[in-house]
Amino acid sequence: IDIFKYVIYGVAAAFFVYGILLMVEGFFTTGAIKDLYGDFKITTCGRCVSAWFIMLTYIFMLAWLGVTAFTSLPVYMYFNLWTICRNATVVDGANLCLDLRQYGIVTIGEEKKVCTSSENFIKMCDSNELNMTFHLFIVALAGAGAAVIAMVHYLMVLSANWAYVKDACRMQKYEDIKSKEEQELHDIHSTRSKERLNAYT
């Protein structure tokens, strides 16, 4: 449990640092978008960094989807256990059982049931640790779901930002080519006008 606790601390610290990196990259990209319509020109390195963050966030989102699916199983299991505890107090003399094989905790060949008739089950239902653990698993599931939603939202924003930068770079190149062509046409027209004027004189 201590090792698992330190792993959770490490993951939380790593994602805190990653969140700060995403925020800094978002500020720089947003500033680049605003300045792009002036004299600013995006570098290839900036586009590579944006693409790298998109790929990394997508991988982390898939990992957090797995964490969300993993944390939903204990919530479901504890909800069933809590329901059995509540029903055991309502219906006197009922022998309700929870089969652990349906959760994949034990193999199909082993028959492991937790029934309300045992004293350990009654003590477990009366203990405060069951409610505390149930609420902590709910908080873990909500946190994992919020992390997935945040990463999906960031992926949408970052992908749109990257597409805007790419389109703006193309538009900038188009405007540069167009202005050069207009300048060349203007030079040709002024040269011909001078030639005509010289021919008349």
Automatic annotation (TrEMBL):
It comes from the Eukaryota. InterPro entries: Myelin_PLP, Myelin_PLP_CS. The chain crosses the membrane at residues 6-28, 49-73, 136-164. Pfam families: Myelin_PLP. One of its GO terms (biological process) is neuron projection development. Its main location: other. It is a multi-pass membrane protein. One of its GO terms (cellular component) is dendritic spine. Interacts with OPRM1. Interacts with palmitoyltransferase ZDHHC17/HIP14; the interaction leads to palmitoylation of GPM6A. This is Neuronal membrane glycoprotein M6-a. It comes from Pitta sordida.
